[in-house]
Amino acid sequence: MKVLFIGGTGTISEAVSKLSMEKDIDLYLFNRGNNNQFAPNKATIIKGNIRNQEEVKTQLKDHNFDVVVNWIAYKPEHIKNDLEIFRDKTEQYIFISSASAYQKPQSSYLIDESTPLANPYWEYSQNKIACENLLMAEYRRNGFPVTIVRPSHTYGYRSIPAALNSSKAPWSLIDRMRRRKKILVHGDGSSLWTMTHNTDFARAFLPLMGNIQAIGHAFQITSDESLNWNQIFKLIAKAAGVEIELLHVASEKIIQYDQSLRGTLLGDKAVSVVFDNSKIKRFAPDYKTLIPFAKGVKKSIDWFDNNREYQTVDEDWNKLIDKIIAENK
């Protein structure tokens, strides 16, 4: 099977790329080459800018693919670009959407693929919904072979996943814990959440590739483990080898200090959810969660401890957390 990943070296896609090679898939990665130290050795790498339609058409003119997966499509214009490039070049196009697209405020804590898509809090999610709508309209009108996948808070060894951590320097949270500083938690910390290790995601994802029965369908792929945020932060601290003091502040109050957190909190991580993965398990019957969060986050912290050049700290983020804590004790 000849497969093209647009991206292929990010948090989620790195694990899928690696597993694809283990399954002897003929894998091509199309990206700008910024993180190809994380690409599998035997993958064929094509360097380019996927947003440059004419350049991409030239680079791929001699190729057709069984599957194309775009890991870095975020806006409708990205999808329109891909439709022009791949309409006659692939038997299946997989769009990576997001479980954050599901209805907020929610009508039920239990989420499956039939849950409505509506998120007034987060532009990121609104754009993912628009992408889904565009692709499904193209599927219905012209038979474009789309499959939609909705991950939720998927992490890997290069991640320290949390509701409140620096996006550009994830080690910041561990640094803060090891310096025995208070840790900020949104709400009372009791809302349920799901963390999914990228290797678990990969094992569920691969059976969708090249599967004609998956065309026209949407799938969510998450862990089956549900934890509340108090448990999550304490498991991170345990993996870091420290005990921590949590300070709880209402999400709405936190957002007053940083409006950019409105989407990721009210539109995602402050909402209590449990995911029903029955549908993906029908397509990937051997799928089950093998990496519980306690084990996965320990792997992440061990990797950072062994790769100290990645232990960067976001001091602006630290100052923000310090300010919120100081004013809400």
UniProtKB/TrEMBL annotation:
Source taxon at top rank: Bacteria
Species of provenance: Halanaerobium hydrogeniformans
Database matches in PANTHER family: DTDP-D-GLUCOSE 4,6-DEHYDRATASE-RELATED
Chain segments annotated as coiled-coil in the UniProt record: none
Lineage, uppermost ranks: Bacteria, Bacillati, Bacillota, Clostridia, Halanaerobiales
Pfam families from the UniProt entry: Epimerase (PF01370)
Protein name per the record: NAD-dependent epimerase/dehydratase
Residue ranges constituting the NAD-dependent epimerase/dehydratase domain according to the UniProt record: 4-219
Family that this chain belongs to: Belongs to the NAD(P)-dependent epimerase/dehydratase family.
